[in-house]
């Protein structure tokens, strides 16, 4: 009989910071299950996302394309239907890619009727090629319906689901975000999604499967169910890195000043919170971070349930497991919350890959220091299942690293981008005095320097060795002019060599189509 195809499990946890892994020595986070997976696989220490926020970052992950090529730059910016993706490609190997969660794909409206409900939100679409036993978009309707069936008053949908529990006796040494959800951990959206996935897995022990499982957490709102609201005491939380005052922080760059103003409105970043996260006092800042760490612990618990099931059913030894995030979270660093700013904390992601095959045994428990990018996920999975990555793909397979065979020509820097336009409200455009098409920046970051190039705003240059927290902009210093020029030229070379290239290595000749691999 032919050898059964292996399984693929691609897990993405929304807004998980790279440093929030206890195996890396984080003083507050506890992730025993991800730690164990890393000890049985490979942990990538310098993994970066391609863009923010959710929709654009997931588009880069699932298409293998840089933002400058897929151009779905904001939540709600349509993704051109011409692009292939991980799910469509995996079907060529006989898989039926299955989604639990969401992809935040904004579909191409061309050819759709204006009344099509798929055009009424950035989260309505699913990346083509996936089947969806449980689609959990922003309104989380299936989970909210489950809460209603359990007797919770959620007549206003998700808005009610994430309201803080009342009445609740909050101790004086805890902040507002110590107040838990109205439901316990067993009824959370994380538990609900995991339960559904385990049911789906329970009848698939005799056939290969391909699953993309998406945790919503630790994405805000920063409210954790009991007992995870108590996982970390705020007095033990390390305070975020920032300058003495918000005004001093704002002087670093106009975009940073704009972002701090944007998120200072209570509820803008953290729904149902009465706090201005920028001006909140020390206790509230520590409590918000503690709540985030509690949500990470909850995700890790359910990750453990999935892995335990795979081991109990024998599927663990024939399943490629990838755990990562779409983008990260500032957690108050530089006074910023969220992910829409150029600092490493918003773009640096966790990545753990466990290859069950014997040729990966020698690398189990190792850590890779080389720079890797979110666009590498798609070619890695395709390579692992025996498929070639499309010519259009900007990433490279990480499979050699899983076998201890680091390529000699591997990248020595990462590149990421951000489109911060607001087409409808023109908020950023008005505040910064630039056009929508000028609301973008691109970053090149290597082991020494990080250069941020804006389309219409001043550039930034950070020395990542001497100034790892990115507090001193060196771009306007005369003695750094040659360094700025060097990185600007590298940025231009990168963009030239990675521009759309689907057909660029083809030529029509008298003998027909010539194509160079």
From TrEMBL:
Pfam families: Sulfatase. Keywords: Hydrolase, Metal-binding. The keyword Zinc does not apply. Signal peptide: none annotated. This is Alkaline phosphatase family protein. It comes from Aquamicrobium soli. Residues 6-386 form the Sulfatase N-terminal domain. The keyword Heme does not apply.
């Amino acid at each position: 009989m032919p050898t059964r195809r292996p399984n693929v499990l691609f897990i993405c946890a929304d807004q998980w910071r790279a440093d929030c892994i206890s195996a890396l020595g984080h003083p507050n986070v506890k992730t025993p299950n991800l730690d164990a997976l890393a000890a049985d696989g490979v942990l990538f220490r310098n993994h970066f996302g391609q863009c923010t926020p959710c929709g654009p970052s997931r588009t880069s992950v699932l298409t293998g394309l840089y933002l400058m090529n897929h151009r779905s730059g904001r939540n709600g910016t349509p993704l051109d239907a011409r692009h292939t993706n991980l799910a469509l490609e995996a079907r060529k190997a006989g898989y039926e890619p299955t989604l639990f969660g969401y992809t935040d794909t904004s579909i191409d409206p061309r050819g759709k009727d204006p009344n099509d409900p798929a055009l009424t939100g950035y989260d309505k679409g699913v990346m083509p090629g996936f089947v969806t036993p449980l689609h959990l978009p922003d309104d989380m309707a299936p989970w909210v319906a489950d809460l209603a069936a359990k007797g919770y008053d959620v007549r206003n949908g998700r808005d009610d689901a994430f309201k803080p529990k009342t009445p609740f006796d909050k101790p004086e040494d805890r902040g507002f975000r110590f107040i838990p959800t109205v439901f316990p951990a067993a009824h959370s959206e994380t538990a609900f999604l995991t339960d559904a996935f385990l049911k789906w897995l329970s009848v698939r022990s005799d056939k290969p499967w391909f699953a993309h499982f998406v945790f919503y957490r630790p994405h805000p709102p920063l409210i954790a169910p009991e007992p995870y609201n108590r996982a970390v005491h705020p007095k033990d939380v390390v305070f975020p890195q920032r300058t003495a005052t918000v005004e001093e922080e704002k002087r670093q760059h106009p975009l940073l000043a704009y972002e701090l103003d944007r998120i200072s409105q209570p509820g803008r970043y953290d729904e149902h919170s009465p706090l201005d996260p920028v001006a909140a006092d020390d206790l509230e800042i520590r409590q918000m971070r503690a709540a985030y760490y509690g949500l990470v612990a909850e995700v890790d618990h359910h990750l453990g349930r999935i892995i335990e099931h795979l081991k109990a059913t024998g599927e663990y030894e024939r399943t490629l497991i990838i755990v990562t995030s779409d983008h990260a979270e500032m957690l108050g660093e530089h006074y910023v919350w969220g992910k829409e700013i150029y600092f490493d904390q918003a773009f640096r992601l966790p990545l753990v890959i466990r290859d069950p095959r014997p040729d990966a045994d020698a690398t189990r428990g190792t850590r890779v220091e080389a720079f890797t990018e979110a666009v590498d996920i798609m070619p890695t999975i395709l390579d692992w299942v025996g498929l070639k990555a499309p010519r259009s793909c900007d990433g490279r397979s990480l499979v050699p690293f899983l076998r201890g065979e680091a390529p000699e020509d591997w990248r020595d820097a990462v590149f990421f981008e951000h489109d911060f336009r607001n087409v409808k409200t023109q908020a950023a455009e008005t505040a910064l005095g630039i056009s929508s098409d000028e609301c973008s920046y691109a970053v090149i970051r290597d082991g020494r320097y990080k250069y941020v190039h804006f389309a219409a705003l001043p550039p930034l240059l950070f020395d990542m060795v001497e100034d790892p927290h990115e507090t001193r902009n060196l771009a306007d210093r005369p003695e750094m002019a040659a360094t700025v020029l060097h990185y600007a030229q590298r940025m231009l070379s990168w963009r030239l060599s990675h521009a759309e290239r689907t057909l660029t290595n083809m030529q029509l000749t008298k003998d027909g189509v010539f194509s160079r691999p």
